[in-house]
Amino acid sequence: MGKRIVVKVGSGVLSGGGKGLDGATLRRLAGEIARARAAGDEILVVSSGAILAGRERLKLEGRPSVQLKQAAAAVGQSRLMRAWEAAFARPKITVAQVLLSGDDLHHRERYLNARNTLLTLLRLGVVPIVNENDTVAVEEIKFGDNDGLSALVAGLVDANLLVLLTDQDGLYTEDPRANPEATLISEVKPGTKPARIGKAGPWGTGGMESKVRAARQAAEGGVLAVVANGAKAGTLSAVLAGKDVGTRFLPGEKPLAKRRQWLAFASHPKGRIIVDAGAREALTAKARSLLASGIKGLSGTFEAGDVVGLVEGGGEFARGLTNFSSRDLEKIKGMKTSQIEAVLGVKQADEVVHRDNLAVLKR
Question: Please, what are the domains in the chain?
Fold first, then answer.
């Protein structure tokens, strides 16, 4: 049985070193993907390049505003899809455009709808071409996240492998462009923190730093991730064949469950619950549930069933689904569980956040 693989292709690869989309590079990648499919693998492509294509068409130069990036994405997205369709024409593979924004994945129902759509496309023999909806996703453009999106997609579809193709051979001990003595890191084990290097240029939205974050996120979810040089012919095929190419991020022995992956990486908290140090210790070290007695304060307005961030010492350390609204929690914070019913008139749960609906954040 073949593998399910997410391949993320950055703008630096798609440009072939130029200022626009390079058709020869897309055809080469499409050919390597076609051979993997012929061997039984299922492939999804997360593709940058809309801003690149739009920038070329509009002849934009200099440091862009967010609005210029959005305009370039609007012009370039159709050009990007035409380029992928042309690239896959020779192997006679149908492609599908899938545009996602952070909001599509923040909500559990829409997250599952996206999953169902992608899995249906794979069953139909289609290669989904996934891209961030840059035209409307202001925050996503600002901070860059097709790399992060690829890690989310890998978890979304239960992928076995995430390949992040860049114009570097992989992760180095230092930025090789600044220090020629830097050496390639072939493997990153769970729990290690490699150096963050290499930021994107003004028209880019990634860089090596974002690829490291995405690879580590995928590995936390149990997906092997590889950062490799997509500008070199044969690299993708070598990675898919299991050869020692690029930098491999090994998954941990106990990956996050799917529901916890969504909570940790894709959900959007409606508010925050501030807890004491004892509650944090119980949640993180002892895998306990959050009780009202451990709550010191709240921020934001939320209802029962919403996602909330859990905070102690100024930083968010976990996310979970709350069983109580912010209105009710204001009344019962700091109280023992046995006191809740007397205050609220009803006790819908003993736990404010049950441990089964909780994800501790490792980032």
Answer: 4-257 (3.40.1160.10), 269-360 (2.30.130.10)
